[in-house]
Amino acid sequence: MWLAKWSLVLVAISLGALLFGWIIEQLWVIVLPILLATVVCTVLWPPTRAMTKRRVPPAAAAATTLIVFIAVVAGIVAGIVPSVVSQAPELANRTTEGINTVQEWLKGPPINLQDEQINEGIHTIIAKVQESGTVIASGVFTGVSTAGSLLITLGLVLVLSFFFIKDGPRFTPWLHSVTGGRAGRHLEAVLGRMWDTLGGFIRTQALVSLIDAVFIGAGLLILGVPLAPVLAILTFIGGFIPIVGAFVAGALAVLVALVANGLTTAVIVLIIIIVVQQIEGNVLQPVLQSKSMKLHAVVVLLSVAAGGSVFGIVGAFLAVPTAAVIAVVIRYIGEQIDEHSAESDIDDAPDAHAGDEDVEETEREGVTVDESAVSPTAD
Length: 379
What we know:
Blueprint: H1 2-26, H2 28-53, H3 58-107, H4 115-140, H5 150-167, H6 171-179, H7 181-223, H8 228-238, H9 244-261, H10 263-289, H11 297-378
Helix pairs in contact: 2-3, 2-5, 3-5, 4-11, 6-7, 7-8, 7-10, 7-11, 8-9, 9-10
């Protein structure tokens, strides 16, 4: 009976999760801009709050913060595009030279491959790369194409971000008044914890990713690797996808160094990446994220895998914050259960003492009756 009861509970939870996932999938056009805007707001809210504390109107503070954010992003893009355009032809030429060198090596001993075999292998590799590029592109724009276009989605994100950081402090009081005192108290507590956890994760991950990008980018610049600023920015962006993002960004940096500068430089770049990521993973991340995340590495890895398989790269980016928010809800429910259990124990305690007092009173009355029954005989 115990097993049957919990099996039904698990089935009900699974059906609820499937229904919730189906609803999210159907409303992904709306959900995606809201989620991305929430992530952006965790970065933009601290400066906006600092300005509102200095009596700047909320609308002006939100607009100023958003304009500065757009200017910074546009400046970074404008700074890396010329380097990509100028260094891409040289990188392509060195790639061709590297391929020719590999072909000559494969023709010689001990491999001794024929030209037909080499060409067939090259065509197979090119087909795989093209297929992977299609998959990656579709993963990047999963859910975005349903919104009409990437520009529309980005526009929605910016508009929602403005209103979120402008009117965000009014949301929880309004929700409290709508849902009532008891439910509103729980919702306000849970949403406050969600916001703190999400903001802590984004800001901490941004700091960790920035440190990775600075040190790895400096190493690439010193070694003269082409597209070093671009690779540093990709390292920063990849840091927001735990485990997987760092591996992909590091592999790309090593590949570019191998093609452009040779095997020795590629090995040095690999050593630099391993050292930086080991320091970041074993020292910085545990210290900085221990208070904000409290998630096991297995949970993080499975969350990234699940989010990436369902919603592509956007899902992998949002997977860990989503898992952290779900963990906050589960912890809060556990705290409420423990609190109610403790209150039940306290409420039951006086009843038990009252029963003991009744027994003691009965025993005292029994003793009194016995003494009164004995006393006339004694007289």
